[in-house]
Amino acid sequence: MIVVIDYKAGNLYNVGNALKYLKAEFTVSGDPAVVSQADRVILPGVGSARAAMESLTEQGLVEVLQGLRVPFLGICLGLQLLFEVSDEDNTPCLGLLPGTVRRFNSSQVKVPHIGWNQVSGVAGQGSKRSERTIAPAVPQPSSKLFEGIPAESFFYFLHSYFAPVESPFTLGKTDYGDWFGSVVARENFYGVQFHPERSGEIGLKMLQNFLEVQSS
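The chain above was modelled as a monomer; its predicted structure follows.
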């Protein structure tokens, strides 16, 4: 059973439509008992980190999510909540990945980051924009999520905060004034900063790949 977490803020409608298109059976629930029995879990993300964590806490889902042993996918804010803390209202998050989620500098780039952008592998991570033109092409993230997806593919982004790129758990990075972590993975936990449900056929392919990930 696939469970899409309902924490009163996620983009449930679009994620649900994408799963229906893939003919995947799923349920939307914020019940810890239902989530703990899931075969795989999706945490979509729209809204603030503080409100999302407060809702997850009130519903008794924090410890359930931290203890999952089945494939988990965090989307957008769902990726950010995997980290220790978000600078958005200095919010403690799930703590499944080390690091802090920070806000884009509005004096350097337009905030929020909206639109299509590329996901690259992490070779040479931390490179500045000025170095990108001389850096060699890097492979697509080495993850089951990206099987059959061309390197340097474009996905749809909509966010004001970003994950660190300097992490052993960063599989993909994206350039928006500077590099940030756009794909992360640790054991059974996966996260993508972009919205696969809004990224056309490429996004649907990535979601299908997640549905085929085997439990560890």
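The first strand starts at residue 2 and ends at 5.
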